[in-house]
Amino acid sequence: MTTPQFVPVQSAKAAAFRGLHAEGSVPLVLVNVWDAASARLVEEAGAHALATSSSAVSWSLGFPDGNQLPRALAMAALGRIATATDLPVTADIETGYAGADGVFDDALLRQTVTAVLEAGAVGVNIEDSGGVPLTDVDEQARRIGIIRTMAEESGVRLFINARTDTYLSGRFRERAFEETLRRVPAYLAAGADGIFVPGVTDLHVLHELSRRIPAPLNALAGVGAPSVGELHDAGVRRISIGGNTAKAAYATVSRVAAEVLGDGNWSELAGARSHAEMDALFARARARE
Predict the structure, then answer these.
(1) Would you say residue 284 lies in a domain?
(2) For the chain, first and last CA: distance in Å?
(3) pLDDT at 37
(4) For residue 43, what pLDDT is reported?
(5) Is 270 inside any structural domain?
(6) Measured CA distances, 213 to 18, 28, 145, 207 (Å)
(7) Does some domain include residue 272?
(8) CATH code at 219?
């Protein structure tokens, strides 16, 4: 569990992160990261908090998304990210890295929560996409309850962002809205602090969800989605872009490689960060050691 002497600092970060979800004129915008360098670059750009992307972390380590990444690798990446920044960090833990092939192990979930806390994170995303069509509501609430209990016992009040894939899964078609509202009360009662509903960017739907959900609503955005301002006006208090950050970065790698290996020129390298600038991103972290 979290080392006692670090609990006050981590607890303060948790409180600050929780405060970023409060109602007000500015939404919490999260540009998701996957390693120390992406974390520092996003911090440098003016972020108030950092969130990992499970898909981006998985790709960077050679695994497909969707509960395929071994927990040890995910937590090692999380630790490097949290160490590289002074900002609050929230971790995407997929379904908890607590089993495969439909077998869920509470002990493995507890190990994941312990690792998240020891890494220095102050929030988690936990999703209900681990069942068919989705994890049973009561079972998912029970898992959220385990995380809540462990967090409270640690002295670090993790912000639990309960993700429901009622829209993203495409398995509920005409009743995704109703299914979302059926699940939310149980998740909140179990200890969730926020609700994440990826797969929907319709402003009317988001407005209705935000009006009926008594907790901060998180939306997933990207190309073609409404603007930050429009989403906030619809009642969304947390906006994240998931694996889209990594997709954009890897698209740059692809363009550079195609040009260098094809035409043999270097124009795609224009605008690249200098070696000194990249090194400088980590000077502060090294000074703390």
Answers:
(1) no
(2) 21
(3) 98
(4) 98
(5) no
(6) 17, 17, 19, 10
(7) no
(8) 3.20.20.60
Residue type, 47: A
Sorted by sequence, the CB contacts under 8 Å of residue 16 that are 6+ apart come out as 88
Q: Please report whether residue 157 resides in a domain.
A: yes
Low-confidence ranges of the chain (pLDDT < 50): none
What is the strand order of the sheet 89-92 is part of? 28-30, 238-240, 217-220, 194-196, 159-163, 123-127, 89-92, 50-51
Alpha helices in the chain (DSSP H): 7-19, 36-44, 54-60, 71-84, 106-119, 137-154, 176-190, 203-212, 228-233, 244-262, 275-280, 283-288
**Cα–Cα distances in angstroms (integers) from residue 28 to residues 23, 192, 287, in the given order:** 10, 17, 30
Domain count, the chain: 1
Stretch (H or E) spanning 238: strand 238-240
The confidence score (pLDDT) of residue 6 equals 73
Contacts of residue 45, Cβ cutoff 8 Å, sequence gap at least 6 = 31
Would you state the pLDDT for residue 5? 59
Whole-structure pTM value: 0.95
* pLDDT tens, position by position, 183-214: 999 999 999 999 999 999 999 999 999 999 99
- pLDDT for residue 173: 86
pLDDT at residue 249 in the model: 98
Residue 101's pLDDT is 61
Would you state the structure tokens that stand for residue 5, as one six-digit string?
């002497």
Residue ranges making up the domain that contains 202: 4-243
